[in-house]
Design goal:
Low-confidence stretches: none
Order of helices and strands: EEEHEHHEHEHEHEH
Helix content: 25-40%
Mean pLDDT: 96
Strand content: 15-25%
CATH topology: Rossmann fold
Number of domains: 1
Length: 231
């Protein structure tokens, strides 16, 4: 079980992050980026899982600039609320030199760096933020976006990641067309891309889209990727 810690972004903004520590000496740090549902029970469990695997896990509250204490479920009303909060955060901009969510993610990376090299993993909206962070932020040794909504648009494909990236997608994901994934692969042959016979959100066992086999395989691949690049 982890606990919440207040972090401070470059502009002085303070926000909470759920921090889970490994039992022994950490193998490195892993920043876990939430879906559009906040740092809820699922995201805390994901962070706990990376801590159990030996990493210092940090899950920043990336909605905090627009609304504190967000912890949603997965019902349609929760999705509507989460989409509105995501839009509000996105409206703040994606310039890491200006106040916004990227400064918060950078603060989480810096906090995780006390454990050594840092990897970033994100889910859904967090996957998109992971992709952006890989090209815009500093201090990352690996990045793993899971079904990053919007990652396969022309503007996002144009980004150039500064660290190794492993991307997970579901072939039944109606939010992310496979032709977009193909375009991402073509533009970035350096990426490792895996596609699973699963839906959007397949990693989340709180959702109907959960696919236990795909989730386990993706986790194994992610842990191997982090072991390779975080040391």
């Amino acid at each position: 079980m982890g606990q919440y810690t207040d972090l401070t972004a470059a502009d002085g903004f303070q926000f909470p992050a759920y921090v889970a520590r490994p039992a022994g000496q950490p193998r490195g740090g892993v920043v876990v980026l939430q879906e559009i549902f906040g740092v809820n029970a699922h995201i805390r469990a994901v962070a706990d899982g990376y801590a159990a695997a030996g990493y210092l896990a940090v899950a920043p509250a990336t909605f905090h600039r627009v609304k504190p204490g967000v912890e949603l479920g997965y019902a349609p009303d929760d999705m509507s609320a989460g989409m509105a909060l995501k839009a509000a955060v996105e409206a703040l901009g994606m310039n890491p030199a200006a106040p916004g969510v990227l400064q918060d993610i950078q603060a989480a990376i810096d906090h995780a760096a006390q454990a050594g090299k840092v990897g970033l993993v994100g889910y859904c909206w967090g996957g998109l933020l992971t992709w952006r962070s890989a090209s815009l932020l500093k201090g990352l040794s690996a990045a793993v976006p899971y079904y990053g909504g919007g990652m396969t648009t022309e503007a996002e494909i144009a980004r150039q990641p500064k660290c190794p990236v492993l991307a997970h997608f579901g072939e039944k994901d109606h939010w992310i067309p496979l032709d977009g994934v193909a375009a991402l692969r073509q533009a970035h042959p350096e990426l490792t891309v895996h596609i699973y016979p699963a839906n959007h959100g397949f990693n989340c066992d709180h959702r109907g889209a959960w696919d236990a086999i795909a989730a386990a395989l993706a986790r194994d691949r992610t842990l191997a990727f982090f072991a390779q690049h975080l040391g």
